[in-house]
Design a protein that fits this description.
2 copies of one chain form a homodimer. Chain A has 150 residues and is α+β, with helices and mostly antiparallel strands. The first copy, chain A, is built from 6 helices and 6 strands. The structure holds manganese (II) ion (2 copies) and zinc ion (2 copies). The structure holds a DNA duplex (30 and 30 nucleotides).
Chain lengths: 150, 150
DNA sequence: GGTATACTGAAAATCTTTCGCATCTTGCCC
DNA sequence: GGGCAAGATGCGAAAGATTTTCAGTATACC
């Protein structure tokens, strides 16, 4: 047998999952791949599930929810609660950011504004609150959707 | 029969409901009363339902949801989506505001910061979005809860 | 009062997410 | 490489929140 173990590249996903303290299983690797490769940065569990189906992966919806929750706990993904029933997940970029969401087409623009972040911190401090987290979502109509309709 | 129609005061609730284009019915009046009289400014449908029960009102939970949704459509109440399952409703004060929520005890502090509001408007404008709404919720631990635990 | 229409309560249906559990896998030791 | 225990998966059932359905009832208006 010629060649070393290096002939087979160990996918980055496996490292991430292992480092998160989770066993490397097919569902976990596939779900992470979907999140990394999909054009949508923000996907609902259902979105992920459908993407898996379209890749002919036999993974149950319950497993998708379970794995996404584990990934969240491990800091691999962030869960968002925008309006409209389902939670959406995105890979954790490591940097906090907020969202601008188009109410017509669902387009999402991410932003980070230090002025807002500072004001929030000040307001919380004035009330004596110790901030744990925050959620800022601005809903509006994106340029494309404004063109399409009056 | 002495006395005019003015002897019987028409409750303000009835006016508000009528002006909203809705028929004045017992459930609607009671629910509006609960929202006005309850110490909690922010109530879930379940909260309202329980308050009704404690007032010996026979109103179904489905009706509570229906009425709250109608009130929202009529601009009488605002629906909020804080973390944790249920939506909460509050009377529409006519003035927008955001929320600081204690993750331990649920205490809510309302605030309005023009600096933040302006920054949001600018950010949306830069992206060409026409703002329709926004939701800013800061989660943290209130002073009381900080004292109670390490 | 009489009537068309809107409203109501209760149950059933939806929708999203989580559980229970029998059945597989993975990670690890020999 | 095989054996094993802990941990994961898939499936169906269950749960929790909200909405819909529908037959009976109340309201607004004449
Ligand atoms: Mn994002
Ligand atoms: Mn409020
Ligand atoms: Zn759009
Ligand atoms: Zn508190």
């Amino acid at each position: 047998m010629v060649g070393s173990a290096r002939d087979v590249e160990i996918p980055l996903e496996n490292q991430q999952i292992k480092q998160a303290g989770l066993k490397v299983t097919a569902p976990r690797v596939k779900i992470l791949e979907i999140l990394e490769q999909s054009g949508k940065r923000h996907m609902s569990a259902e979105d992920v599930y459908k993407a898996l189906l379209s890749h002919d992966e036999e993974i149950g919806l319950a497993t998708v929810y379970r794995v996404l929750t584990q990934f969240e706990g491990a800091g691999l993904v962030c869960r968002r609660h925008f309006e409209g029933g389902q939670s959406v997940f995105e890979l954790n970029s490591g940097e906090h950011h907020d969202h601008l969401v188009c109410v017509k087409c669902g387009k999402i623009v991410e932003f980070l504004d230090t002025t807002i972040e500072k004001r929030q911190a000040r307001i919380a401090a004035e009330e004596g609150f110790k901030i744990e987290d925050h959620s800022l979502v601005v809903y509006g109509v994106c340029p494309d959707c404004q063109k399409k309709r009056g």
